[in-house]
Specification:
The protein has 10 helices and 5 strands. The relative contact order is 0.12. InterPro entries: CBS_dom (IPR000644), CBS_dom_sf (IPR046342).
């Protein structure tokens, strides 16, 4: 027998409530809405879906508190509502993390590599974030904004030779605060998304997040996230 939407909704709701209790470490009874208040301070997923969760709290009360019998619910949620709350349940239970969603082979450049060769490689891969390492030691990231800063800084020169100019030369001309952060592979993609939005609020340009196992710059680079990569996150 196919479960009714109200039954599916309540199963997912109860699982979410348990997840919020785990996030907050709540030992005694706390209302669902208070759980949201506490959990959103600790969890980016809760912050992302806060409005939905509050609506679901009201709907849950309508279903449970106005039942005339165990088998009868006064409201049957729409399919879209049930599918959304089940998706939030799955997201809280098994959060999508940066290391899984954005892990890929990243081409590493050396300080002595030519500007022209780096551009050719970036164009071929359609990836214009250029990580520079010197014998395994991270030296910097050249992003499109960094390239523009370099060009603006050297525009007075008669000739800018892409073949002669090295990535080390470009790094020396990038003077603004760094436009990247290292993040651990286990960071949720929602927390990663917030890092970009928080940077904007603070008036800082953040071009990329560099993924390593534990978020240290002396570890192997596992992937790169740009703001464009996160556009399709629901």
């Amino acid at each position: 027998m196919t479960a009714r939407n109200s039954e599916r909704f309540l199963v997912a709701f109860n699982r979410i409530e348990k997840a919020l209790e785990k996030i907050t470490g709540t030992g005694s009874y706390v209302s669902f809405f208070k759980l949201i208040d506490f959990a959103k301070k600790k969890n980016a997923i809760v912050r992302r879906f806060e409005d939905d969760l509050r609506e679901y709290g009201d709907l849950r009360n309508a279903i449970v508190h106005h039942r005339t019998a165990v088998e009868y619910a006064i409201a049957e949620p729409h399919d879209e509502v049930v599918e959304k709350i089940e998706r939030i349940d799955r997201t809280l239970t098994e959060p999508p993390v940066a290391g899984d969603q954005f892990r890929r082979r990243v081409h590493i450049f050396s300080p002595g590599d030519s500007f022209a060769e780096a551009l050719r490689m970036a164009g071929k891969k359609k990836d214009f974030q250029i990580p520079v390492y010197d014998r395994g030691e991270f030296r910097g990231l050249i992003s499109p904004s960094g390239l523009m800063e370099y060009l603006a800084d050297t525009i007075s020169e008669d000739v800018i030779s892409g073949e002669i100019t090295t990535l080390s030369d470009i790094l020396r001309h990038i003077h603004t605060s760094r436009s990247y952060e290292f993040i651990p592979a286990g960071l949720s993609i929602y927390a990663a998304e917030e890092m970009f939005s928080e940077a904007v609020v603070k008036g800082r340009r953040l071009d990329a997040l560099l993924i390593t196992e534990n978020g240290r710059d002396d570890e192997k680079l596992l992937g790169i996230i740009t703001p464009w990569d996160l556009v399709k996150i629901e």
